[in-house]
Amino acid sequence: MMTVTLRVLLILVSVTTMFLMLRKIRQSKIQIESAVFWLVLSLVLVVFSIFPAVADFIAHCLGIYSTANFLFLFAIFVLIVKVFYMTIHISQLETRIKELVQKMALDEKKTEEREQGMEEADEGTK
User: Fold this and answer.
1) H or E element: which one contains 67?
2) What is the pTM of this model?
3) How confident is the model at residue 126 (pLDDT cuts 50, 70, 90)?
4) Burial track 66-84 (b if 16+ CB lie within 10 A, e otherwise)
5) What are the domain boundaries of the chain?
6) How remote is the C-alpha of 77 from its chain's centroid?
7) How many helices (H) and strands (E) does the chain have?
């Protein structure tokens, strides 16, 4: 069974997370795709805190003795999955940055070569 303190804490944290995410979306400081994860997570936690029987049932089905242990395990698992997907995204961004830097270097080299060619042509006509 979930204690009243844990229920109140979950409700406060979940509602605060939802409020902060909605505020950041309105301020255009976070993309909606990124905020959806946090909004869904906070909604799930609100459901668990308002209807603790759901968390109790899932914990019992998984063979976890304490509902609080289930909630911590759930949070850890979700955050590990989030970190994994963020790692993939960061890796993709690093690859894109590397390709852009290489393209910029090649473009800069071509521009320098053109400028040198024009300077040599100007000197040849003098």
Assistant:
1) helix 67-125
2) 0.68
3) low
4) ebbebbeebeeeeeeeeee
5) 4-118
6) 15
7) 4, 0
